Structure formats: structure tokens, C-alpha cells
Amino acid sequence: MFTRDEIKETATALEEKTAEEILQWAHTTFHRKAVIATSFGLEDQAITQMACQTFSNPIFFTLDTGRLPQATYDLMQTTRERYHINIEICFPEAQEVAEMVEKYGPNLFYQSVDLRRRCCEVRKVNPLKKYLKDKAAWIVGLRREQGITRNNIKKVEWDESLNIVKIAPLADWSQERTWDYINKNKIPYNKLHDQGYTSIGCSPCTRAIKPGEDLRAGRWWWENPENKECGIHIVDGKVKRVAKVNQ
Ligand code: SF4
Prior knowledge:
The structure is a single chain. This protein is 37% helix and 9% strand. It is of the alpha/beta class. It has one domain: Rossmann fold (3-Layer(aba) Sandwich), CATH 3.40.50. Strand 1, helix 3 (42-54) and strand 2 form a beta-alpha-beta unit. It starts with a helix and ends in a 63-residue tail after the last helix. Residues 235-247 have low confidence and may be disordered. The structure holds iron/sulfur cluster. Iron/sulfur cluster is lined by residues 65, 67, 109, 116, 119-120, 123-124, 201-202, 204-205, 230.
């Protein structure tokens, strides 16, 4: 459909388009080979609303790591019912999880960055790669304002680790604009946001932020800011590889 070089030219022209126009372009270009990733964050909820308004039968998927907060499962249920959509769920390989937990314990992520990335690899990255294997593009809720690991993302770019097109329709949206859209359209959102959580992932790796902190400060808060990605997204055009730990 598109190669790495071909998408660069198209991507430059698309940078000025609105989020709705980007979604429409993705649908027209990739049809059912474009899928929408959701972890039920504010941005994902905004994209879900837009996609349901823009074209019929969008394909949504989520990664269920097995460690999500109850509030996220509640929102998953609410979102399915409100939009009358099915959300495909990608689970990690049970055997891989069992071996990791038996070897390093259930809370291995607090022991080292390598082990935290190992957990993200098993519970998120591997299921994601498997799911996206036969897709041409994936749509994500990343915004540049979300922190130093994300301030160079493009609305449309080549995903080096997955070899497909990555589309971030809200790349240039602010936090305030996202909330305005959520409130104006009465879109359901994760109740943890009302308790000071700005970015919500797995329960043991997410906390509320304090005034003045970076929006993603509550994710893996015990690590340095430059480490705050799970291996799914690329930083500054480079593949941020998941470090291997001794097996
Ligand atoms: Fe594991 Fe935490 Fe990554 Fe979830 S966010 S996959 S619990 S390390």
C-alpha cells in the first residue's frame, strides 16, 4: 500500500489537516486494513467518537495486559454500549506471562528498567505485533504535548518497529482542547481522571500526578522521563528496543 519513502511525502501534506480529515484519509486509503488502537485514554475516547461519526464500522482493538485498573474495564464496557461497537481484545501469551512471573515475581517492573520493559514486551508489545502483522496502518491517540518522548511525533509517519503506517490524528491537540472535545460531546472517560490521573496504563505502573508535573509523570514514576515508553512507540525516529534480560 505505502512504503516508508512513499509515506513521507504524503505525510508532509497531511500535517495541516484536521483530526477528522486525517481519519477520513485513513479510511479512504486503507479501508479495513486501518485499525484504531484504544487504551481508553481521553484521546482514544475522542478518536472513538470521531471515527464513529466519520465512517461506518471502524475497527477498534485494545491490549488487555491483565493488570488494568477496574475503572478501565468499566469504561471499556460503557464505550462498547454507547457506540454499539465491538472492541477486539489482544491478550498476552499465557505461557510467556507464566514463565516471566514465575522467574521474576508478579511485581518485576519495580526491580529494574530492563525488567519493566520485559513485562511491557510480554504483555503489550508482543500481542500488538501479532495483531498488527497483517494490517497496513494503525491509528493512535498520541499527542506531542504528552512529554519529552512524544514531542516530535507526526500526524502520519512510518512505524519503524512494526513496518506499517502510524497515524496520530490528535498529534497537535493540547490537553485543554482534548478535554473541551470530551465535555462538549459528553464522551465517557476514565473516572481515574477525576482523581488526578492524566495518563492511565496498568494499575501497578500508574499513579495520579502532582500539580506542575509532566502529563505522563504518573506512568512508571520511579523511572527517568526518557524511559517512559513501553516499547510500542518509537522515540525521535529511532526504534526504542526492549532490552533483554537474562533468561
Ligand atoms: Fe507490565 Fe507495568 Fe508494562 Fe503493564 S505497564 S505491561 S504491568 S510493566
